[in-house]
Amino acid sequence: MSAPVSPRSRRLPDGPGHDAWGRNAPEPDMADGDMADGGKPDRDGPHAGRMEVVGRFAVGIAHDFNNLLAVVLAATDQIAGRPGLDEATREDAVQIRAAARRGAALVRHLLAFARETPAVARRLDVREAIDDLVPLLHHLLGRGVRLEIDPGDVALPVRIDPTGFDQVLLNLAANARDAMPQGGVLMLRCRRLPRDGGRFAGIEVRDTGTGIAPDVLPHIFAPFFTTRSERGTGLGLATVQEIVTAAGGFVTAESTPGAGTCMRVALRIDDDPVERPGGGNAGDGWVLLVEDEPVARRLAERALASWGWQVVSAESAEAALDRADADAAALVRFAVVVTDMELPGCSGAALVAALRARPGGAALPAIIVSGHAEAALRRDPEVQVLLARPVPPTVLLSKPYPLPELRAHMAAIAVRTEALESG
Questions:
Q1: pTM (2 decimals)?
Q2: Which end of the chain, N or C, is more open, meaning fewer C-beta atoms within 10 Å of its C-beta?
Q3: pLDDT tens by residue, 108-137
Q4: How far is residue 399's CA from residue 387's CA, in Å, rounded to a whole number?
Q5: Average pLDDT of 284-313?
Q6: Rounded to an integer, what distance in angstroms lies between the CA atom of residue 284 and that of residue 305?
Q7: Residue 322 pLDDT greater than 70, yes or no
Q8: DSSP secondary-structure letter at 37?
Q9: Reduced to 3 states, what is the DSSP secondary structure of residue 66?
Q10: How buried is residue 74: exposed, middle or buried, by Cβ count under 10 Å (0-12/13-18/19+)?
């Protein structure tokens, strides 16, 4: 979250009474294909083939869109960081960055739909993640439900799969919406909980709906338990509990018939300082930067130089190898190579392997960036070969990434290199 946000109400503009997720449409029991004879999913029929094509198309669009968002985020980070910038321009940059971050959240859902993002826990701030999810929540709730958010006034870093976190809130919001057929209020409230010395982040999802009967409440997290025989699958809250428990948290429910329901999600606070970018320059060595997109390359050059690095740029793997072969000492002087994964004619992973195979390149650290999700990148055979060897380090970075994240990785590499040289 770019700045503390006070409690606020958000209301959808006037529009049709149906939300973009098909609020009033029946919910299918299966999502893997058409239903053939006997009520079994037809996974091999023409519909399944079309869905596979749609999935591949979605992944391609998401990759290209992530590349565009990476440029937007890098540019706004640099603008906002300029000394002497007037406050109005700085606020504009912050708003642009927030919009780009929300775009990244939408892409994450697109990749989840295409099944490119298996669950991978990472550090995220609860308040930022909720803020990114607001557009989807608005679509899900529809015009009759007012969304109110009280994010609190302290950061709430937790470790959880981002897509799983989104699914938790969307499932809870969908249940709340169905409990308010005549409209109402959905309140999201974030706080640091006193439990275990304040080591938990708490998220309250409170509605003004019909509530849950006392004899039903103890069973709501049981798989396949549902009170909606026509539409419900009985997996929504079971999925919520599974995701939260896997992240080391817990979820509870409190309800009064006729007065609404409050679902409370608790996630363990992650105060690990390792992932926090430090201050000062990241280093003063040489960097080989390989990026085929001119705008993205120019922005990365500027950022790296501002952190104290000497940058040698290349627009392709072939050009990068030419730079490395310029003279006998050229490759040895590079402290790290930062390369895009998708390069013309050669992958970034193959380039890293080729550089490390050259004289003087065996100990070269690498940061590989990609518009694809990190989990998908880890499945690439060429990347797996690099990751199998912890030394030299190979870092994977998904676009769009904030510049402080790249800076933190560069700083860590500089510290590690200095330690190896001194040892």
A1: 0.55
A2: C
A3: 666 665 555 556 788 899 998 998 888 889
A4: 19
A5: 89
A6: 9
A7: yes
A8: G
A9: helix
A10: buried
Question: Sorting pLDDT into bands at 50, 70 and 90, what band is 355?
Answer: very high
CA 70 centroid distance within chain:
13
Give SS3 for 253: strand
Amino acid identity, position 336? V
Report residue 328: phi and psi, to 5°: -60, -30
Whole-angstrom Cα distance, residue 302 to residue 287? 12
Residues 6+ away with beta carbon under 8 Å from 413: 283, 335, 336, 365, 367, 393, 395
Q: Which two tokens stand for residue 232?
A: 């419900």
pLDDT digits (tens, 9 = 90+) for 155-165: 899 999 888 89
Q: Which residues of 137-163 are buried (b: 16+ CB within 10 A; e: fewer)?
A: bbebbbbebbbebebbeeebbbbbbbb
- Cβ-contact 127, 152 below 8 angstroms: yes
Quickly count: other Cβ atoms within 10 Å of residue 266's Cβ.
20
| One-letter identity of residue 406 | L
List the single range of 2-16, 223-237, 324-338, 399-413 with lowest mean pLDDT: 2-16
For range 190-196, the mean pLDDT: 87
DSSP type of residue 43: T
C-alpha–C-alpha distance, residues 55 and 33, integer Å? 13
User: Which structure tokens are listed for 400?
Assistant: 């769009």
pLDDT value, residue 12: 29
d(CA 103, CA 78): 19
Give the separation between CA 333 and CA 421, rounded to whole angstroms. 13
Burial per residue of 16-26, b for 16 or more beta-carbon CB atoms within 10 angstroms, e otherwise: eeebeeebeee
